[in-house]
Design a protein that fits this description.
The radius of gyration is 28 Å and the shape is flat. It has about 250 residues and is mainly alpha-helical. A three-stranded mixed sheet has the order 1-3-2. It has a two-stranded antiparallel sheet with strand order 4-5. Strand 4 and strand 5 form a beta hairpin. About 50% of the residues lie in helices and about 10% in strands. The chain has nine helices and five strands, in the order αβααααββαααββα. The protein has a domain of about 80 residues. The relative contact order is 0.10. Helix 2 packs across helix 5 and helix 3 packs antiparallel against helix 4.
């Protein structure tokens, strides 16, 4: 008759063997998923260009324009500079600003790059699409579709839209600098009159303001694919950006 210890050892060996089988099955399934290519969803890609898209190109474009591969390195200096610029543009207590700086530095000291989410072949395809100056890649006005158009057709549609004199007016020169100077003059007067604090004045003061850019989103569900005009802020904010946010009731 087997002893209790012999029976216990046999059970433990069976459990360990079964666990190894399960782990191997999980590993094989994971490798199979990673090695298999993701099937492109052509429903999410609308090709209006004169070029024939390859299967890898459709596969990449079907991920949508919100898809972002992980960076190759963490730009800590850029992040710190961005946080510092945001602090200077915000009305915060100095103690809170110092705490924010310390928290960001501590977070960056432990920061690690996320795992890659793109296959090398897909990364190569992304670069090929980015270098193709003959096409424009946009989001559709509605839905999740990615639209590919010939650049000449996109430019022609945008010029036609801007030619509507009932909606748009051609200006002799850029009024941004003039508007910025007028706004800053009013802010300075209010600050000198004691109606604005020095901190609020510097928060609302504008320098080197940018001009918003106009682009169009194709309405692929309508005949002739008209555009919906969209305003995209440039790298530099418009001169009244901080002022409009300050005056808007919360």
């Amino acid at each position: 008759m087997r002893s209790f210890e012999e029976h216990k050892g046999q059970v433990q060996e069976m459990v360990a063997r079964a666990a190894k089988v399960r782990q191997k099955k999980k590993f094989d399934t994971l490798v199979s998923k990673q090695s298999s290519q993701r099937k492109p969803d052509e429903r999410h890609v609308v090709n209006l260009s004169s070029k024939q898209l390859t299967t890898p190109q459709v596969q990449v474009l079907s991920r949508g324009l919100n898809f972002a591969p992980p960076p190759k390195f963490i730009s800590k200096a850029h992040i710190v500079a961005s946080v510092e610029a945001a602090i200077k543009q915000s009305i915060v207590i100095e103690g809170e600003a110092t705490k924010a700086r310390v928290d960001v530095i501590n977070a960056l000291s432990y920061a690690k790059l996320p795992p890659t989410n793109i296959h090398p072949q897909e990364a190569k395809t992304v670069k090929e699409l980015a270098k193709d100056d003959d096409i424009v890649i946009l989001s559709a006005d509605k839905g999740r579709a990615t639209v590919v158009m010939d650049r000449k057709d996109y430019s022609a549609k945008m010029l036609t839209m801007l030619g509507d004199q009932n909606t748009y007016q051609l200006m002799a020169k850029d009024p941004t600098t003039s508007l910025e100077n007028r706004m800053n003059s009013v802010l300075l007067r209010l600050q000198r009159e004691g109606r604005l604090s020095g901190k609020t004045y510097y928060h609302l003061h504008s320098s080197a303001a940018g001009v918003q850019h106009l682009y169009g989103l194709p309405k692929v569900h309508k005949p002739d694919v008209p555009f919906r005009p969209m305003h995209c802020p440039s790298f530099l904010p418009p001169c009244c950006h901080q002022l409009s946010a300050f005056l808007t009731p919360t």
